[in-house]
Design brief:
Distance between the termini: 63 Å
Helix content: 10-25%
Shape: elongated
Number of helices: 2
Radius of gyration: 25 Å
Number of domains: 2
Number of strands: 9
Strand content: 35-45%
Largest sheet: 7 strands, mixed
Order of helices and strands: EEEEEEEEEHH
Bound molecules: zinc ion
């Protein structure tokens, strides 16, 4: 994801709007694979302040995540803010805190991906009311009512009592 700033970097005070759509490969995020379900779109305004290039705007698109309750894959819509600064190559002084770019392009890929990671829910769910999986038989309770919750409660309590007895010994 590169922005061509060849002209902008020589024009202090100027702004250029960039609209892009890019396909990204799957990402690894805390042990899970995150798949982009369609291109990422970004709408960005890049301004040359004389010292830095500011990149501001939003990126949005769809991800394929798996539900933390029922494990099913579902489509998650994201829309994240982008707010970055890149220092212009200066003669002499360098600003250690800012990313410097060389040449005529700014690569915003890592900034955009970081912003998406920050916005991801810790426990993604396919729907607020997702019933998850039955803890007894593993059935997806959104699709099946497996019957475990009804008559089998006494049976489960029995098993639990047996376990507690074992722990006492
Ligand atoms: Zn779910
Ligand atoms: Zn069940």
């Amino acid at each position: 994801m590169q922005l061509d700033v060849a002209r902008l970097k020589r024009s202090p005070g100027a702004s250029v709007r960039y609209e892009l759509a890019v396909d990204l490969p799957p990402l690894a995020f805390s042990g899970e694979e995150i798949i982009f379900a369609g291109p990422l779109s970004a709408d960005l305004l890049v301004t040359n302040t004389g010292k830095v290039l500011t990149v501001e705007g939003v990126a949005d698109g769809k991800l394929e995540l798996s539900c933390s309750r029922c494990l099913k894959h579902f489509i998650y819509d994201y829309k994240v803010p982008i707010d970055e600064k890149y220092s212009l190559p200066q003669e002499g002084e360098t600003n250690e805190e800012l990313q410097t770019f060389t040449g005529d392009y700014i690569d915003i890929t890592s900034a955009v991906i970081n912003s998406i990671f920050l916005a991801l829910p810790m426990k993604a769910v396919c729907a607020e009311g997702c019933q998850g999986l039955c803890s007894v038989c593993g059935a997806n309770l959104n699709e099946d009512s497996c019957g475990c919750a009804g008559e089998d409660i006494d049976l489960r309590l029995g098993v639990l009592k047996d376990l507690l007895k074992k722990d006492d010994k």
